[in-house]
Amino acid sequence: MNIKNSNIAVWDKSRKGIGNPNDIWQDVDWMMIRGFTNSGNPKAMSSNNDLANRFTINNYSRISNDIKLPIIIPDEEFQVGNTVVLKNNATSFYGSTDYYLPDGSLVGQAAPGAAVLFELAGRKYTTVTDSNGNWRFNNLDITSVSGGTYGQLSMIDQDKRISKIVPVLIEDKVPPTGDPRLIKAKKGDMTNLTDPKYAVLNSKDETTPTNQLIYEYVTSLEDRQKMVSEVGTYEVEVKLSDLAGNYTIIKAPVIVHEPPEVITDGFITGKDFEIDFDTWVSANDAGKRQLMISEEYGNLRGFEITGQNLIDITNIPSKLGINFSGHNWEPKKTYPITVKVKSYTKVIRVTLVPAEVEMNPNQVYSGTITPIYIDLTNNAKVDNSKIEKVKIGDDLETIVNQMITDKKMTLNYTGYGEVKVKDYKVIVNGNELKTSVVPDQNFQLVYNYTGQMKFASAPNLDFGKIETSQKQESYKLVSTSESDVSVINTLLNDNWNLQVSLPQGIKNKKTQEEFIGQLVYFDSAGKETVIDKYGKKIMEQKPEMMSLSKVDVRGSGKSGMTLKQEIGNSNGDYEGELIWSLEDSPKP
């Protein structure tokens, strides 16, 4: 027998050529057996010494060049480095198959119809690969398997060849569970809001013993301390964790009540409030109920308690009883209103105050209805459409001061003459009313402003260090020089003209010699303006400019401020006082 350039696999007689080979030799150059006998084993010669030493042909039931073995490959979703990891909250597990050679290389041939076995924690799950060699376990329930447990995955193909066992590490990803407790805390008492375990009932986990579960408050101590400072209903959050680091956030309802109260089947929150007399008496009982419920007034809330549940029944009249009977409503009086949920009763005190009217604050140019600007960089106007409800007879200065404190209103903006709180005018139906208190009709509260034209800033110009010259030279501002002129103009009818002058010229700081040359300004069209002791206009306000205009006199290219030097200057530092001025001109 002579075999060349072949793979060789052998099965002993007991296997009858089925299943995995007993021995495999890959890429054998040659093998030869010179003669055969019925007893003993003929001597084999081969380029592979191991084969030559161990090949016993009379012991074999099968010799083949098919040396490939099956391999089961979990999907890359389950591959973490070199480890196959399956989370215990997974309900499916899947992958593919292939064959490999002894050198570890994959053949690229799937194993259809192969039996796949997954063994875990004493359980066995089986499936069969499809025509493409893919396998899948569905409807797994492994939530009770602890993290760190190992299972194993194996496969037998249709030729009964068995894959290597693939270890599968279980990772605990199932969070613990628990039910929230209804916490009842006395006002000012932190006892029931200190231990997070008190907020959770019936806690359990699939793998971690209950006594080893970890309880932590998510709601800060500061927030819990704030809760007990005021009667009301709240919610705290507790993090319930297992030993694997999985966690659940439990949200537990909290009732903070007055210390003498015993809370059983109901609870009510709300506040005493004031309301306009006309609004109250014009409403029927259903309307009064809604006024008491509204956040603006009573902020009334009713709750039923069932077990550990706090059920909001505010909008169910049959469960949240409010008694409006037995009262003769009069202004400037306070009335107790009884509210009831099951066995719990609370009294809300309602004070009826004189009627309210609407006040419309306006900030305008004096003598006009034109709103002033609140942002001069984009000419954004003040919002004069806002309405504030105020009580008849209340002091207007007090109201405005409170609005300023509450940041509902701002007086005095950049670019306008100052106004004081008392400088308002009350306008009712287009006519001015001399009063210091809220009138009995809707009204405008008007502040009149005068606009201004002025500099926000003006630059000092620096032409840097230049050499005396034997010919006329021109110089632009150095990069570090100031160059921005900022002008504020909030006048309604006038534009500005920017003028500049050098009253004393430019002189040598040491000798007081006059600089021989000129400071000139070139506009964008190339027009040259010599800056001398007389004010010269170099620029005017353009229609597209905002009320705060920033002008760069550096210019670009040939435009902008330029220093011309003539022949004859002596060395030294030169300076001059530059006077910037504004002149108004009517808007076109």
Molecular structure report:
The structure is a single chain. The chain has 588 residues and is mainly β. The chain has 6 domains: 2-16 and 28-60, no CATH class; 69-168, Immunoglobulin-like; 177-257, Immunoglobulin-like (Sandwich); 266-353, no CATH class; 356-451, Ubiquitin-like (UB roll); 454-586, Immunoglobulin-like (Sandwich). The protein has 5 helices and 45 strands. A 6-stranded mixed beta sheet has the order 6-7-13-12-9-10, with no helix packed on it. A 5-stranded mixed beta sheet has the order 30-27-33-31-32, with no helix packed on it. Strands 3-2-1-4 form a 4-stranded antiparallel beta sheet. A hairpin with a 2-residue loop joins strand 6 and strand 7. It is flat. The mean pLDDT is 94.
